[in-house]
Amino acid sequence: MAKLTLSVDSGVVKRAKRYASLRGTSISRLVERYLNLLSRRVHAPTDKDTPVLARLRGSLKGASDERTYKRHLERKYR
To answer: What is the DSSP letter of 51?
Structure first.
């Protein structure tokens, strides 16, 4: 197992120790689980978009700022 050094606010450490103690685990285990969740791939990338994503892709082209989007909505709902 690899060792990792972190700099964390003392208040956060205190709350984390209490949280871990109430759950019968260690801060190291909590951090390991959290990093594991962050680093896992939730969905494997696919070559083909779903039908909904294919329809939505590009639907906001040209709406790069709030003014442009507002003009778009004004024209759309006249």
So the answer is: H
